[in-house]
């Protein structure tokens, strides 16, 4: 099946035009199902809202998993200077559209999964129920010339302090001061790069009760592999870091595919967290992330996707799938 570049761009524009922040993905899910059906492919929406389609082809079974939700913040959809502006154009409807057309044009053995809630609690990935794949490709912006082989984990913790009231003239520490000390202890090893933790305070509240000073702090730490925090609070959520070996057949397939398009390939490790962290351990197979777009534009008011890069990414992904067929 061969689809024109104009059709691919129009599909992406329609996809991005459907505003779908986490929890409001129903319209975009229906659009994807209808789009698959228009090409003669059966698709359905599962119990949590994921869009699933399958295709029997040659070689190993490969899961193409992107997410259909975005963060909030509407950006008017428009094309200017060969860039498509709009919320989700980069994170991650551009990669999702790349998967859609690679699925249609490839003869590989594929499962397509458009997942809900990635920008919030990853309920789509956590509840995904499909046949076990041999490899997983996650739809996230890596740039068409790069493949992402690692993501940091995410640890969310809550700390609570309660101190019996004392007079304000005394130098004793209240609940707020104790919580700040905990944060300073946690953050002492923070740094840049994949192998260092980083984080921020999500919420810090301190107030007086009848006989106590009371405080509560919620923090999120982006964790490297095998991370142990200096102090532990109540764990609200934890997704471990993930990294695939550069020698994985999956990584090598992408490296060869990128080179065949006349480009020097790059391997990336990211400080964020993605559904790759969940799905790779869930199925026990190698995973990478791939897709067009500059991830520095994620979640910003300037989110836009270069359309030439988008079209090139479809061709790279098709070649990678072809490479995987021979493994």
Described by the principal axes of the CA atoms, the overall outline is elongated
How many whole angstroms does the radius of gyration measure? 22 Å
Number of helices: 8
Please write the string of helix (H) and strand (E) elements: HHEEEEEHEHEEEHEEEEHEHEEH
CATH class of the largest domain: Alpha Beta
CATH architecture of the largest domain: 3-Layer(aba) Sandwich
The structure class reads alpha/beta
Mean pLDDT: 95
Give the uncertain stretches in residue-range form.
none
Helical percentage: 25-40%
CATH fold-type name of the largest domain: Aminopeptidase
Got a strand count? 16
**The CATH homologous superfamily of the largest domain:** Zn peptidases
Q: What is the count of distinct domains?
A: 2
Strand content: 25-35%
Structure summarized in a few sentences:
Catalyzes the release of L-lysine from [LysW]-gamma-L-lysine and the release of L-ornithine from [LysW]-L-ornithine. Its EC number is 3.5.1.130, 3.5.1.132. With 327 residues, the protein is of the alpha/beta class.
Q: Could you explain the architecture of this structure?
A:
With 327 residues, this protein is an alpha/beta fold. 29% of the residues lie in helices and 30% in strands. It has eight helices and 16 strands. It has helices at residues 5-17, 26-38, 93-105, 123-126, 175-187, 249-260, 276-283, 307-325; strands at 43-45, 51-55, 58-67, 78-80, 83-85, 108-115, 135-139, 146-151, 153-164, 198-208, 212-223, 234-239, 242-243, 266-270, 287-290, 304-306. Strand 4 (78-80) and strand 5 form a beta hairpin. The mean pLDDT is 95.
């Amino acid at each position: 099946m061969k689809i024109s570049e104009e059709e691919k761009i129009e599909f992406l524009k329609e996809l991005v035009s459907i505003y779908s922040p986490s929890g409001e993905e129903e319209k975009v899910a229906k659009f994807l199902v209808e789009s698959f059906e228009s090409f003669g492919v059966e698709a359905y929406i599962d119990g949590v809202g994921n869009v699933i389609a399958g295709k029997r082809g040659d070689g190993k079974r490969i899961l193409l998993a992107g997410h259909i939700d975005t963060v909030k913040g509407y950006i008017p959809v428009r094309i200017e200077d060969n860039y498509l502006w709009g919320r989700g154009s980069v994170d991650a409807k551009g990669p999702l559209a790349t998967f859609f057309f690679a699925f249609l044009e490839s003869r590989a053995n594929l499962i397509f999964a458009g997942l809900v809630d990635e920008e919030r609690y990853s309920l789509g990935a956590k509840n995904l129920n499909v046949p076990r794949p041999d490899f997983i490709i996650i739809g996230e912006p890596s740039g068409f010339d790069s493949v992402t082989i690692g993501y940091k984990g995410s640890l969310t913790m809550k700390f609570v302090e309660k101190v019996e009231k004392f007079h304000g003239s005394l130098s004793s520490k209240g609940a707020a001061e104790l919580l700040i000390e905990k944060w300073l202890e946690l953050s002492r090893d923070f740094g840049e790069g994949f192998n260092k933790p980083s984080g921020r305070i999500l919420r810090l509240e301190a107030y007086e009760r009848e006989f106590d000073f009371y405080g509560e702090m919620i923090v999120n730490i982006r964790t490297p592999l095998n991370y142990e925090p200096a102090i532990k609070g109540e764990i609200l959520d934890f997704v471990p870091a993930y990294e695939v070996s550069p020698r994985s057949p999956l990584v090598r397939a992408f490296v060869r595919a990128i080179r065949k398009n006349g480009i020097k390939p790059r391997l990336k490790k990211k400080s964020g967290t993605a559904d790759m962290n969940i799905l790779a351990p869930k199925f026990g197979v190698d995973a990478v992330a791939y897709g067009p777009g500059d991830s520095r534009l994620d979640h910003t008011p300037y989110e836009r996707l270069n359309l030439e890069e988008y079209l090139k990414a479809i061709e790279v992904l098709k070649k990678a799938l072809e490479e995987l067929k021979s493994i």
